[in-house]
Amino acid sequence: MTYLAKPTLHHPNLPTNKLGFTHRDYEGSVSTLCAGCGHDSISAAIIQACFELDLPPHRVAKLSGIGCSSKTPTYFLGASHGFNSVHGRMPSVLTGANLANRDLIYLGVSGDGDSASIGLGQFAHSLRRGVNMVYIVENNGVYGLTKGQFSATADKGSKSKRGILNSDEPIDMISMAMNLGASFVARSFSGDKKQLVPLIKAAIQHRGAAFIDCVSPCVAFNNHIGSTKSFDYVREHNDAVNFLDVISGREPITTDYEPGTIQSVRQHDGSTLRLHKLAADYDARDRIAAMNFLQERQAAGEVVTGLLYVDPEAGDLHAYLNTVETPLNELDAVLVPGKAALDKINAGLR
Amino acid sequence: MPESIERTNDFVVKFANVNGSGSASANRLFARSILRMGVPVSPRNIFPSNIQGLPTWYEVRVSEAGHLGARGGADLMVAMNPQTWNEDIASIEPGGYLFYDSTKAMPTSKFRSDVTVIGMPLTEICNAEYTEPRERQLFKNIIYVGALAALLDIELAAVEGLLGDQFKGKEKLIAANVHALHLGNAYAMKHLDCPIGLRIRRADAVGDRIFLEGNNAAALGAVYGGATVCAWYPITPSSSLAEAFQRHCGRYRLDPETKKSRHAIVQAEDELASIGMVIGAAWNGARAFTATSGPGISLMQEFIGLAYFAEIPAVVFDVQRGGPSTGMPTRTQQSDILSCAYASHGDTKHILLLPEDPRECFTMGADAFDLADRLQTPVFVMLDLDIGMNERLCAPLDWDDARRLDRGKVMTAADLDAGKDFGRYLDVDGDGIPYRTYPGTHPKRGAFFTRGTTKDSRARYSEEGPDYVENMQRLLKKFETAKELVPHPVVRDAKQPTRFGAIFYGSTSPAMHEAVAALEAQGLHLDTLRIRAFPFHDDILDFVAAHDHVFVVEQNRDAQLRTLLMTEGDIAPAKLIKVLNYDGTPITARFILREIEKRMADANVVPLRKAVP
Ligand SMILES: Cc1ncc(C[n+]2csc(CCOP(=O)(O)OP(=O)(O)O)c2C)c(N)n1
Ligand code: SF4
Ligand SMILES: [Mg+2]
Asked: pTM (2 decimals)?
């Protein structure tokens, strides 16, 4: 089997968004992943989020590394340009792409092997540079594509399908992302679309480096008893601190909530994130407190999910580099200083 | 004792200094003042990275005949570093001169009897004149330039003119420097035997030529080539290329109204990231480059393969040095030829451009971006430390204002709307070069998924053998197309028909020209061909075919270009004779002459002069 094109016939009654696109317009080709793989649910959530945000699909660029997770960009947003790069190096390719054209939306998809092992350096540096992007790690604790070796996010003491115990400390990408200056940090679960879709929407609207660690069970190699990345384990230990509504600027806020249960965060594009607090004293704008909270709960074996940290005032790499508003790839006509300038340079070199 | 060397406008002065003593700008002043007198010079910085105390040398070859290659040896040694005294004294040619700071007496055993010793109490003079330590340090250098002017007959006005240019608008600084200059000059005139046997005489041999470093020129090439994205990781000897680009961008790449940047420069976390960023930016339609050296090239291998197969333009400036990472980082070599030509895994080959001097660093630097876009592939511009980090005389840089950036085969939204068929890897024009679209071009058409080779000609996922082979064949065809597009070789025929040819490239040029002239003077005739690019143009193979013996002159141990010639041109190894210099010093005419003379003798050629009784 090589390529599976989806039939493009549209059902006449499919709902459309503001741009007149249907859900189908955000899909890609048929997934070749294992049936039940968590990664497919994340693709579905991305499709849903883009549809709901009324994004023109071609204004999204999707980039990935290598792995089952990194294959998924083929399976969503078929009208977008995509780039399956090399193992662990999606962040640098995305950074370069972003520098070339600041007007597109950049969606980086990676795996835990891709980002926490071979690509840990690029993961770190892209976040600390504040590249304006959504960076999703589809975290299953194993190398799916190379058939089930432990990845660097596998918890210490968790058991592989073949019964081997993992003796290495896990890398917690969430804590790292916060440390490194990501300005939007969330964790979710591929099995919780309700939580995940709004998080992806909010991350897309966020300016700056938005990181989502999405636990995404591998049904082929890491969904057994003894794994801490299985569907059952995550359902049991999911400790959601909040859930989210994303409200675009114009929509009025209608419902009343009990005081103290809602945290509203206005993003720079005018949208509002309405956080329904589940952990009463959790403040997603307080980075230090968030980090403490995370450490405590994780030590207790919980999988903390939700929008864990957001800085709505964050800048991005273009702001730091003070680049012009026009995308650099559209500047051809003004780039060459010309002969007169060169003659002056020559004169200064004699 | 041999007679003291007597030579005008043809000698080598070498400065031995301590790094950070402010000597660099004084030495440069010295070299440029000779240029201002119309006499060509070629200076070279020598700066080992591994000796404590950081000695540096600056070697100035003066040559009215215009020989810009390194010569070797020193006729006048300006020995300002006690630490390297012994080796400095040893490197003076018999009959040469030694200039040193005689404030502290030196035992006679420290001198050579066949060298004229010129002592001047520089420190004493400085201490008497200046009180501040920093001034003492800086002006000491200017004082010796003044003394050298007296010793070598350099016009003080030439030096003063340069000081005036350098400190334009800072009259106080000009006056202070001119004062120090005169101080040194007057002392030498009064106390030393001026001039010595080495002299500068005003000439008209410089013309309108300019004097700049290859790295700087390449950076200007990147500006003129329309580069907007630069991602790099510091490594000698390439760092000054990226830094020069940054400087030029501050001048030529700011929006005149908002002062915002029309460029983005990122100092990446390593070379993997720098090439990744370049590839991402180029994929997205910006012109992007990185500058690096051998160790960086090694780290970039995987990505370079991706760019080759995914057909993404990327420009890499490789300023070559000795390998490996802890090797000879501050020494010149041409030893990345193979690792660039065949960079990565799988069947890959890449475009190499081989500039001979800063002027070609500029032109090839700019052309590289057109070639990369036209051919949708990585292009390497292969500088080396010798041309990259030294100022070299070369023809002025030139630009045709009618020239436009050649962005190659890019389909626009209008093309797609007009119904043009888009398949990312379709060979529509028969030249092996497909069409591409930039991300975000069109709401409905032209999007594709970029990956390595698991694809068909429409960029759909495929692992089928025939799809793979078709793609690989098309890539070969594209490489054929490249042969005509890259800079062609430069052939120079000897005065008489000859069975001998020589092939060379890059920074070997000036030494080669000098050697060929010397051989010719002996009646040994040699046709030459300078290779300027890979893939090899047919003229190169024709040249080899037309000669019985072809010397391949290179600055590496393994004759890397020769290997490339044998492999790509199916040339019998015996025909290509290695002439290899790889001790880290720039190749010299003396070396080439000696090697080729010897081998021509082995091949039983009797020099004309000797043959005629
Ligand atoms: C340089 C390099 N080394 C090794 C590999 C082999 N490889 C492919 S995918 C992969 C691991 C992927 O794991 P992860 O990112 O977690 O993705 P998953 O398949 O679990 O979604 C490895 C090691 C490679 N492609 N490139
Ligand atoms: S191997 Fe695991 S990660 Fe890969 S597709 Fe199958 S279930 Fe998903
Ligand atoms: Mg994984």
From this structure: 0.96
